[in-house]
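Example record for the data management plan.
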Amino acid sequence: MFSKILRQLSFLTLGSLAGYLLGEKISFAEIKDVLGSLQNMSAAVFALAGLWIAYIYPKAIISYTSPEDNEWSYGEDSTKRIEKLILTIFTSAFILVAILLFNYLHAIFNNLDLVKNNMENYNRLLLGLVTYISLLQIYSISSIMLANIEFVNRLYKLKTIKEGKDDLNT
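Corresponding structural encoding:
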């Protein structure tokens, strides 16, 4: 839990630093392209991680939709993998909502005199937020990549064990 809080604080700090140091040199048009990429990536990660959970761990999904049929259990490794995937889905959903709010609020606030008179600070805030959600997305995709590597390693381990048993039986 502490490591997750520390990671979020690190991402917020890096986002704030990027916004403060580079924000006055960035325009919304440049940030908008990054937002489009983040939206596409988040939607893909959201969908793929959800499909992966449904395909690999169908009993977990069934127990969610039918709470009375709660006779499933996975080992600690599988439970941690499911947790990572669910947190990745949640992160991607959070990013999609953040982008929606970002675009909506920008449309509202962009034409206010307060914003026009403080454009450098406004751009700093925008860049800080986009940097933060970009770091979240990078972490999310990295988690999926790591989960895939762990999954493949587990498959090879099981294959090696099976081959060893087959060799002993012949």
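Summary line stored alongside the record: The radius of gyration is 22 Å.
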